[in-house]
């Protein structure tokens, strides 16, 4: 069966923009977030408190949060890799953070400048302090289905990394197909292995990139296993600067089109959302990758 309702975790302002080489002005980012909230999205990943040299596009995190008018009932999580990032996030009044680990050695090095093992030592004090401050914590795992340098990734490896991040005190685990190579059978194996390691399916979210056009099929496979939180990016923007061949995320419009058709509630107004992505595409100077945005807005 399928869930009655799905929570969409909108990553457009973070994952969507982090790879854009031209810096998007902060007032455009703020209008983007405000339009996304108006379209009915309840979780808006807003930015990252990472090293500004590593992700120059998000170097304006403080300015963005200072200018943000939070809408009642909307959560604005941010990415935090380490204690320095947590200090910055707390000073900015953040209440919801996401740490982001890697399932592979190579990507831990490239994305975090840490070994696979060292990443846990970096995250542990972040989660402990964040929980003590009453913050909600999500944990991402990247490269859950394949890694551009290491090739296929074992499901048990993903489950072991995910379980460790959950045991630290994260309340949700987002399984990331960073480079978009997964197919539905693999999604089933990785979710089954993660559940078998002791992470309840209720606490698992999925994060697909659409590089090989598999993101919607993979999402449906996850929903059939009981997953109810799905990450996506308005217009299909996105990609990771530290992952070769990572293209756009699953587009939120494509996701909403499928869920509307299936009668699964999301609370999102597709028309307003497509307008927002068309507006953002104009700001970025190229059409939105989303098939649904193109079909609806030409
Ligand atoms: P590092 O160079 O090892 O940092 O980077 P360090 O701990 O050695 O510190 C070096 C200097 O940086 C120090 O300053 C720190 O204070 C400063 P100094 O004492 O030399 O003057 N520093 C910071 N400054 C500001 N904010 C901070 C911060 N941390 C240290 N937070 C680090 C390690 C983790 C910081 C770096 O590797 C980094 O920023 N990485 C982030 C990369 C990133 O954002 N990638 C994209 C997000 S992940 C993703 O997209 C995947 C996902 O979507 C899921 C999926 O698709 O799979 C989530
Ligand atoms: Mg991503």
TrEMBL record:
<feature type="domain" description="Pyruvate carboxyltransferase">
    <location>
        <begin position="6"/>
        <end position="274"/>
    </location>
</feature>
<dbReference type="GO" id="GO:0046872">
    <property type="term" value="F:metal ion binding"/>
</dbReference>
<keyword id="KW-0479">Metal-binding</keyword>
<dbReference type="Pfam" id="PF00682">
    <property type="entry name" value="HMGL-like"/>
</dbReference>
<dbReference type="GO" id="GO:0046951">
    <property type="term" value="P:ketone body biosynthetic process"/>
</dbReference>
<dbReference type="InterPro" id="IPR000891">
    <property type="entry name" value="PYR_CT"/>
</dbReference>
<protein>
    <submittedName>
        <fullName>Hydroxymethylglutaryl-CoA lyase</fullName>
    </submittedName>
</protein>
<dbReference type="GO" id="GO:0006552">
    <property type="term" value="P:L-leucine catabolic process"/>
</dbReference>
<dbReference type="InterPro" id="IPR013785">
    <property type="entry name" value="Aldolase_TIM"/>
</dbReference>
<dbReference type="InterPro" id="IPR043594">
    <property type="entry name" value="HMGL"/>
</dbReference>
<keyword id="KW-0456">Lyase</keyword>
<dbReference type="GO" id="GO:0004419">
    <property type="term" value="F:hydroxymethylglutaryl-CoA lyase activity"/>
</dbReference>
<comment type="similarity">
    <text>Belongs to the HMG-CoA lyase family.</text>
</comment>
